[in-house]
Amino acid sequence: MVQDPGYGYRHVVTPDEVRDRLAQLPEHFLEGLEIIQLSRVTRKKQSFPCYGMQWGATLYLYPLEESLVETFYSPPRPETVTESQMYGGRWGQPEPGVWTLTWTEETVRDYYLNNILIHELGHLLDERNSSYTDRERYAEWFAIHYGYLATGGRQSRRPRQKVKRRHHAS
Fold first, then answer.
1. Quick one: pLDDT at residue 118?
2. 72 and 101 Cβ atoms separated by less than 8 Å
3. pLDDT tens-digit profile of 11-46?
4. How many Cα atoms occupy the beta-carbon half-sphere of 25 within 13 Å?
């Protein structure tokens, strides 16, 4: 399902991209999944980083600012900074009390398809844990294992660097 993202916002992945990414996972991971909804912006999303949610057999993916620059008026949590940087998000503090998170088309698509989507699927599959902390820990592990690492980890997300020769050829 695709909802209108809301004024000033846009969806950063398409239904086809989501389908293609899910097709790379073992089929049994998808048995309980009924709906994926590209949702409209919510007040919660406007106030702090909230990119997805799992509720019952539905996964929700929230839109992002059209500019791909998010602005926050409270400091980001360290784990939010680390996780977004793993996928290429760039944090800045243009003035006191203001933080920005800037994405490119490529990095935000990677973040949604290999972290947010997989994290929320991890919640759906978690049948053991009942506490919030344990459920988050499991979903984070699931996203790292089946999202980040399964798609190349840090090595595949490094900017291409020039090779520096340390010795002259003889």
1. 95
2. yes
3. 999 999 999 999 999 999 999 999 999 998 876 655
4. 26
- Count other C-beta atoms under 10 Å from residue 76's C-beta: 18
Residue 23 burial (10 A CB sphere; 0-12, 13-18, 19+): exposed
CA separation for the pair 89, 124 (Å, rounded):
26
* pLDDT tens column, 79-106: 889 999 989 999 999 999 999 999 999 9
Crossing angle of helices 117-125 and 15-22, rounded to 10°: 50
Q: Which residues, other chains included, contact 52 with Cβ-Cβ below 8 Å and sequence gap of 6+?
A: 59, 60, 61, 62, 112, 116, 117, 119, 120
Within 8 A by CB and 6+ apart from 139, the residues are: 119, 120, 122, 123, 126
d(CA 61, CA 129) in angstroms, rounded, equals 23
Residues of the chain above pLDDT 90, percent:
68
Secondary element (H or E) of residue 13: none
Residues β-bridged to residue 52: 61
pTM as predicted = 0.85
Closest CA to 81 of 72, 91, 71, 73: 91
Give pLDDT, residue 103. 95
